[in-house]
Amino acid sequence: MSIMEQLPVLLIIGPIIAALIILAAGWHDRRLCYPVMLLSITGQFIASLVLLLQVIQDGTIRYYLGGWAPPLGIELVIDSFSGFILSTIMLLALLAIVYARRSVEAEVPAEKIVSFYVLVQLLIIGLVGMTITGDVFNLYVFLEISSIATYTLIAGTRSPRSYVAGFNYLIMGSIAAGFILLGIGYLYVATGTLNMAEIAMLLPASYELSTVHAAFLFLMIGFSIKAAFFPLHLWLPDAYTESPSAVTVIISTVMAKVSVYAMIRILFTIFTTAYIIESFPVTEFILLIATIAIVAGAILAIAQNDLKRMLAYSSISQIGYIMFAVGVANQIALEGGLLHILGHAMMKGCLFMVAGLIIYRMGTSNMLELRGVAGTMPISCAAFALAGASMIGIPPTIGFMSKYYLVLGAFEAGYWLYAAVLLIGSLLAAGYIWRFIEIAYFGDHHHKGDQTTTPEGPISMIAPMVCLALLCLILGIFVEMPMEIIGPAAMILLGGI
Amino acid sequence: MRENVVIRTVSRLAVPFIQLFGLYVIAHGASGPGGGFQGGVAFAAAFILMIIAFGIADVRKRINNRGIMIFSIFGIALYAAVGLLSILYAGNFLQLNVIEAALGIPHLHGILIDIAEAGIGITVMAIMISIIYDMADTGGESA
Amino acid sequence: MIEVIFDLFTSHYNYWMAIILMLIGLYALIAKQNLVKKIIGLNIFQTAIFLFYISFAEVTGGTAPVYLPEGAEALYVNPLPHVLILTAIVVGVSITAVALSLIVRIYEEYGVMDEDELMKVVRER
């Protein structure tokens, strides 16, 4: 079937056309934007699931743009790793879009709504492109598409502070992108090709060259900034806190995960384990930084009074968990890391949705003003508790399963001390999650006025939130389901098959 | 704005040539150095020169925000249409030689590349002008 | 020793120049207080990377990669980095445009262009 073969490129071209239709429809009538957006994202989500099933059945899908084979042309590659990330991000994007409608109406000026949806669509195009491309320079281009959309989206609220947050992120992001571009240049100098598979094939001959080391370091630093890996995370709290709630949901789940994906791709597919463990041993260093990130992020999160800011710092800690898996670099730990990408996307998406709904309803995200909020918003606080339990790692949630695999992996590699830090990280997570739970459930009731008489929020905001909270639980119990695809993905990364 | 005869006359003379050069660069994209982006920027440069010389209100009469939006959508749509056309002829995206083989017209792929480049050029021109408009709109009364 | 360093510099001077230019840009990006100067620094930083690409595309004695009558016999410089950099320039232009419009809005809102003062004003509000 022809349309099935063309699916990878339609996944990118379709939304571009959808973005144009949104723009044109928005000019005609602002209310038309949202249905078009929802339709296009749903289509993308279904396409990503179809591709994932195809990958499970028939193995890696390769698509040559313009019919030009790899050394000359650009190829799109969907293997089990990118297929897994693709469907994860599309699921989160779909739920975030469902959630966005009312939240955006409340937080974004009416005349900006059309461009808001166009930009969200462009952001998702960029992220999907980053996930499925098999060409490093193409990766850079899609990275920049998504980054430019993000800078503008962050600056999209009514609050002028968001302009400053957007500008600061722009500076950091552009430095990161510059480093990535430079790293790609060094890779090209060393190998003479830009195709990921070809680079991986040609690179071993020049592992000892300082050109390759330089390329590696530039790419690592660049993607570390993009993924907010610990010492380079400074842009993240402001960007997450000041942007509109719907945007926070999208960038904290979808964008952060794709940046980590790109970093793992670079580390394991292009440089391969032979390089990062033997020729240029960085895994131990990554492990060390990751453990510092876990602890430092969690401690900083405990110190925050703003709910969104607390969750933002918690993201830094959770990125540490994923990088921990990269540092251990064996099969079980990587499975845990990939599962944590899925799990963290779901729980952090849910938590930020709760934060957004609280802002929508209460007009503030300052925790000191939210005492007893559970009385007014029981469903949201229950969802928060469930996703929070997953964040801490209480069985049988998905957060427990991913940390369990991480600890097993660390044991297998003999990193006993580091495994202990994982548990400390969990305790600290309990600290900041419990802090909000305590305030919400056991604080004095200040908001008795409109208690239980009105629904706590629009159904389109509650439904995705509850859906994610339940998914945290269900996928934790039936963990074999995601593991079926994660196992082969981790194997591909480690050079098997 | 103070009248300046020299600037106005020179830009009035220069604008058609800059635009012609922009079109040349776009049309030359398939077979030599050039292409949609460079040509589009050169074309937009003519408008920017007009904005500097005659003021923004004068240029807005020729191309307003609605026009910009239509141009930019039309440009990308043209590009996407050429790409998707090859899918109709059972090739991959932008695989133009299959169309040429199916229709049997020599050098058709060059023509199709030119159409796609023209689409890019139109979009780039529109976006460049809209950036200038946007800056002028928000930048207080200086423009 | 001096000669070795001198050789290292002269044999790869294009890379050295690109890196020096990049560091100038990075310095401006980090150390300058004025937001517009930061963006100029960002542009210098990006341009340095573009120059790096263009310089390694050079083939000694090569001509511009336009198809000559000699065909494949002629010695061309590598055209691929040029194409890549064309894309990167587009990206750079877009980022500059976004950055400048953000600065315009920040200035409209707070009336300052200086980073330290901006932080002070933001904190006060």
From TrEMBL, chain A:
It is a multi-pass membrane protein. Residues 134-428 form the NADH:quinone oxidoreductase/Mrp antiporter transmembrane domain. One of its GO terms (molecular function) is NADH dehydrogenase (ubiquinone) activity. The keyword Chloroplast does not apply. GO terms for cellular component: plasma membrane. Pfam families: Proton_antipo_M. The chain crosses the membrane at residues 6-25, 32-56, 76-101, 113-133, 139-157, 169-189, 209-235, 247-277, 283-303, 310-332, 338-360, 372-395, 415-437, 458-479. Keywords: Cell membrane, Membrane, Transmembrane, Transmembrane helix. It comes from the Archaea. GO terms for biological process: ATP synthesis coupled electron transport. It is found in: Cell membrane. PANTHER family: NA(+)_H(+) ANTIPORTER SUBUNIT D1 (PTHR42703:SF1), NADH DEHYDROGENASE (PTHR42703). This is NADH:quinone oxidoreductase/Mrp antiporter transmembrane domain-containing protein. It comes from Methanocalculus chunghsingensis. The lineage of its organism: Archaea, Methanobacteriati, Methanobacteriota, Stenosarchaea group, Methanomicrobia.
From TrEMBL, chain B:
Residues 6-129 form the Na+/H+ antiporter MnhB subunit-related protein domain. GO terms for cellular component: plasma membrane. Pfam families: MnhB. Keywords: Cell membrane, Membrane, Transmembrane, Transmembrane helix. It is a multi-pass membrane protein. It is found in: Cell membrane. The chain crosses the membrane at residues 12-30, 36-56, 68-91, 111-133. PANTHER family: NA(+)/H(+) ANTIPORTER SUBUNIT B, NA(+)_H(+) ANTIPORTER SUBUNIT B. This is Na+/H+ antiporter MnhB subunit-related protein domain-containing protein.
